[in-house]
Design brief:
Layout: H1 10-34, H2 39-58, H3 63-76, H4 91-140, H5 147-174, E1 183-186, H6 187-200, E2 205-211, E3 217-220, H7 222-239, E4 244-253, E5 256-262, H8 285-290, H9 297-307, E6 311-316, E7 322-329
Parallel strand pairs: 2-4
Antiparallel strand pairs: 1-3, 4-5, 5-7, 6-7
Helix pairs in contact: 1-2, 3-4, 4-5, 5-9, 6-7, 7-9
Bound molecules: adenosine-5'-triphosphate and magnesium ion.
Amino acid sequence: MRPLDPLRSIKVKLGVVIVTAVVTAFVVNEIGFRLDYTFKVRVVVAIALSLVMVQLMASGMTSPLREMAAAARAMARGDYTRRVRATSRDEVGELARAFNRMATELAAVDRQRRDLVANASHELRTPITALQALLENLVDGVEQPNPHTLRVALAQTERLGQLVGQLLDLSLLESGGARVEPQPVALRGFVEQALHEVELAGRDVRLTADVQPVDLAVTADPARLHQVLANLLDNASRHSPPGGVVAVQARPHADGVRLSVSDDGPGIPAAERDRVFERFSRLDGGRAVREGGAGLGLAIAREVVELHGGALRAEDNTPSGCRMVVDLPVRSR
Ligand SMILES: Nc1ncnc2c1ncn2[C@@H]1O[C@H](COP(=O)(O)OP(=O)(O)OP(=O)(O)O)[C@@H](O)[C@H]1O
Ligand SMILES: [Mg+2]
């Protein structure tokens, strides 16, 4: 039983407890006096009854604090499942509710950290296993060190390097340690250069650029913005059907610029549109793994865009496919 739970302030609760104790002592003294008890007896009985009243009234006032201390000790040991009973409406109750919210959030962060370690280890192990098998074959003489086997080994090493680079970049961006050096970027030349690089990769897609007005510019870190566009173009051309169209469009929008990359591939189902921006998320597991994607590209792109004060999202392309939209403020943060 917690009789004072409905009261909203700890000061009022303390007042009620003190008044109850004083009134109890006074009443006991009065009755004892009328019944001719000695002063000593009256004092002892008054103190005892006042203490009982305090115990009854104040029960539950401090127990959330003790529960919180115990839960905090459990958290320090890595157990985030404990919650505190937060029924009172005063400051302690408020603290207990905030504590419970914190415990829930910490549990989620802890789960994400474990997932991240598991995913990263899994992704790293795949090329390492392939490389190890190849090297064992070479050492045992099962295979000869010819240009083909060496190229396979080099490809696996490059994949490892790329993966480690992406992970480091992501942790740098997430920790807020990434430096952005914004400068005016003329979008027309910038987009054409990025498309040219995709052409050199030799994918069977048709690339189009539409930047209007022709002198449209944005203030951004050119290397970082290129990283975003290259990633979106890589995804779009990878998911396009043979001969499909990948279109880049840039237009003024609100008080900034809207840059979009559209393709006519399978698109991303509405329910998955948030998930694709999470680390290691791949919708088309088998194919993406074969083609070397770890599912980090969009997570990095979103971090970079947000670092510029912008937003990146996926939507439907008409009539079919996926459209990635980057909104950037003219002047980045
Ligand atoms: N244009 C697109 N069309 C359809 N699905 C897409 C498109 N872009 C991304 N996706 C889906 O989102 C997932 C995550 O994309 P992301 O760029 O983060 O990773 P990735 O391309 O698989 O690997 P990485 O970019 O790290 O090499 C992809 O695996 C794919 O399933
Ligand atoms: Mg990608």
